[in-house]
Amino acid sequence: MRKLLLSAAALAVAATASAADTVRLGTEGAYPPWNFINDAGDIDGFEKDLGDELCRRAELECTWVTNDWDSIIPNLVSGNYDAIIAGMSITDERDQVIDFTQNYTPPDPSAYLALSDGVDLEGGVIAAQASTIQAGYVADSGATLVEFATPEETIAAVRNGEADAVLADKSYLAPLAEEDPDLMFVGPDVPLGGGVGMGIRESDPELRETFNAAIQSMKDDGSLNELIRKWEVSSTF
Amino acid sequence: MLFGLKWLSCYLTTGKHMAFYGSFGTVLLLLAITAPTALLFGFGGAMLARVRFLPASLLGKTYIALVRGVPDIAFFLFFVIALDQALEWLMHKAKCPEWDEPIRQGSDFIVCQAAKVPPGSAPQWLHETYGFALAVITFAIVFGAFAANVLFGAMRAVPHDQLETAAAYGMTQRQTFWRVLVPQMWIYALPGLSNLWMVLIKATPLLFLLGVEDIVYWARDLGGAKTPRFTDYPHGDWRMWYFLALLVFYLVFTRISEIVLDRLMRRLSVGQAISGGDAKRRAGA
Lengths: 237, 285
Known about the structure:
By secondary structure, chain A is of the alpha/beta class. Chain A has nine helices and 13 strands. In chain A, a hairpin with a 5-residue loop joins strand 3 and strand 4. About 5% of the residues of chain A have low confidence. In chain B, strand 1 and strand 2 form a beta hairpin.
């Protein structure tokens, strides 16, 4: 009888452990090459590859969820998913609300993209995505900030003249500048943030440590650099 | 490289576009479930408000006044989170009584794994269905309050002679309500309800706000400019065309609704008792 009880208890423990091992990853799905929805309608990009590999190494079962950028932190905090993996730079402001893993891309420059060279970056109208480090930087720089909910709209604002330039991660702007001869980088690059990391609830230190270890192992064997080069998201470690 | 029609036919049948077409189904499904549910809420609310028992009628009237007075969007954003957390809190109390950490830690809302709704290990479709169900309930609560108001008015608009006659024939209160009042109130309720139906159709893009991947979500994503690196079908900013398609969809849909509702109205008018109806009939004859 006692043996039966013990094995039942062991089973129960195993069951809760496996239930806890499904981790829901939240991403934006609108920020290539970091994360985007491909032609087939699936989540794709650097962070999809990275997240899947991290989960494999940490022996977690992961599922993907897309969520608007605006509400991506509130929905993590209220438990809709367990981790944010969405090109989110590590900043002090965000760190007060959620925790970050170690960065999986080094701190990388942001850049201004505009239609012409002679744009006034300090006094003009600059577009940025709402609630990003770039938006915070523009607000402090003295320029007039116009915010948009998606990265896509910030570029559209420059194309239609609503904004003089857009400030965003250089890796996001580079393919656009390459493809469209009208768009060009202006001014010097702006170093912002402490690199990109995964956002985890503050009450979930265990998951943070798990992902920290997985990221470290990818840094150590060079596979992280490989992924970074494949998707051209940033400089390497 | 493909050109013209062939390109277009390939482009319009990508997996992403299929998801877009599917999301029209999501919207129709939402309407198909929400409309009757809201009507039920409305009927309940109107009945409560009519009851001659103060706490019940106060409850009904408070429901109507409260929901009608708060902006839809505020209500939508509040209710979905509140419902979700209330459910998880109840589950938590039932399933993890031995849990001693606080549920609210700073801004975090923490319940034990077993209390997660739906469970964390559930497949993605279950999470989506759950989100959709929360949306339906919220829609039903909001539109139910408006429907309650309409039905409450309609019940009062039924000529009093009809109810008195029913009483004179010896019908009980309940019989009078179900056999005389309810069948006759629809004609008075229909203009208000059809108006509500139109507003409900137009409110469906709120799904997007609730995190459901609806037609607005996909239209915005598909319409955005695409660079050749990340897609086989690069194009510029086509959001205008996608939103135009949504506009046409909604216009066609509301127009069809109008036609159907007009027919229904004519049908319901047949043989309807209206106050002074007999005099009017004679004047017409």
